[in-house]
UniProtKB/TrEMBL annotation:
Source lineage: Bacteria, Bacillati, Bacillota, Negativicutes, Selenomonadales
InterPro entries: Cro/C1-type_HTH, Lambda_DNA-bd_dom_sf
Any GO MF annotation of the entry: DNA binding
One Pfam family here: HTH_3
PANTHER family the UniProt entry points to: HTH-TYPE TRANSCRIPTIONAL REGULATOR XRE, TRACRIPTIONAL REGULATORY PROTEIN-RELATED-RELATED
Name listed for the protein in its UniProt record: Helix-turn-helix domain-containing protein
Keyword Cell wall biogenesis/degradation found: no
Organism encoding this protein: Propionispira arboris
């Protein structure tokens, strides 16, 4: 996706991470109004310490946020999924959830896979998840698909 401003990129990343302006504002120690101003180009000179924290939150590099490189430079999405420092729909995934997501991403981004792979789980790690969490997982899957879409 092409972004003409850092603000557009920040808003896109926030929404794709299912975060509110208030949640992100708290993480970077600014008000939701200030974050709104970042996302809408009212404030364009965003302090470097805020850029660094935003990059960590969104799992991208500061250079990507600033527009100095074209890719988000997330070296290993699977490592992020296996890490327990992220949330989906306000909850930290269980180890079983992380393993399941990791397997899904491994399968999806495996460029050598020329065939459709079918899998069946009998333990259903999402059985105890609320509908909002399942929606967040779907949004995450769509985000990964868009990120690794083959042109």
């Amino acid at each position: 996706m092409d972004f003409s401003t850092i603000g557009e990129k920040l808003k896109y990343l926030r929404l794709n991470n299912s975060l509110t302006q208030e949640e992100v504002g708290k993480k970077i120690n600014v008000s939701k109004q200030t974050l709104y101003k970042y996302e809408n180009g009212i404030i364009t000179n965003i302090p470097s310490d805020k850029i660094e924290i935003l990059a960590e939150i969104y799992h991208v590099s500061p250079a990507y946020l600033m527009g100095w490189e074209n890719t988000s430079s997330v070296p290993n999405l699977v490592e992020i999924i296996r890490n327990d420092s992220y949330t989906l729909a306000g909850r930290t995934p269980t180890p079983a959830d992380r393993a399941y997501l990791s397997d899904m991403v491994d399968t999806y981004i495996d460029e050598s896979a020329d065939q459709t792979i079918a899998a069946h789980r009998t333990d259903s790690p999402s059985a105890d998840l609320p509908e909002e969490a399942l929606q967040s997982i779907e949004e995450f899957k769509n985000f990964v698909r868009a990120k690794y879409k083959k042109d």
